[in-house]
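pipeline: protein-struct stage 2 | run 1193 | Isoaspartyl peptidase
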Amino acid sequence: MNVIAVHGSVETSSAPPYLASLRQSALAGHSAFASGLVDAVERAIMSLEDDPLFNAGYGSVLNLDGEVEMDASIMDGASGKCGAVAAIQEVKNPVCVARKVMEETNHVLLAGKGAAQFARDKGFLPFNPVTIQQRASWEKVMEARERGETLELSAFTGLPKSCDTTGCVAVQNGCAAAASSTGGSFLKLPGRVGDTPVIGGGIYASPWGAAVCTGLGEAFIRLQAAAWVLNLLAQGVHVNLAAKAAIMRLAAEGAVGGILAIDPKGNVAAVHNANSFPVALVRNGKVIGDFIPVRITGN
């Protein structure tokens, strides 16, 4: 049994182009199952990092200084191995660098200039991930700030309707893995790191399944949300109930977000308390078109 699911973040448009890209990502990941489970989640996230519709890799949002700093992570539930990069700049696919950290170092997380140098040492070529749209958005907001105005734009990016973290969970023959990538939050302080590269906060995988998070990263870190979901699964809680409980816990903190989780049997849960949370699910090579994330309202 091969199951893979990807999300494009909370507050991301569910318009046809976005859903088509998410399905393409899930199918790309599914096609990589032949090479292995970790290959599958990495390939799915690479697809989203290459797509300027999403806030990961090419198309990432700009920080307060007008630069892109990206975070990414990957984790193999069977072995417990994981790798991550934080505030990395000028690479095309941060998730691939995160995998190199996992497989070719004794570390879990590399950040900033050290992460970028590691990427160069491993053969990753310099790449400018800034799109014309994100640069224009940053300039528009900075001009408004100089005039003392506040623009009503996405809490996560500078675009009217955009996205935050991208994530993927997958199961192959009862083993789970996860991967995640983001450009972070729009106009963040330089050096700010959210939950995406924080193992246990924004991502976790174990013999009991896998989970990835998106939304207000600081809240997910404080709550150790991804690991908390997996702890519930280890206690026998169904994946749908575990994800719902985690989002209710998040909402109690006054935060907005979404969680995508999977158990070893391939049961997938997508729960959020935002306006939107587009997800694509592929099971044994078939796109499950009627899979709808659950939206929770209230605390």
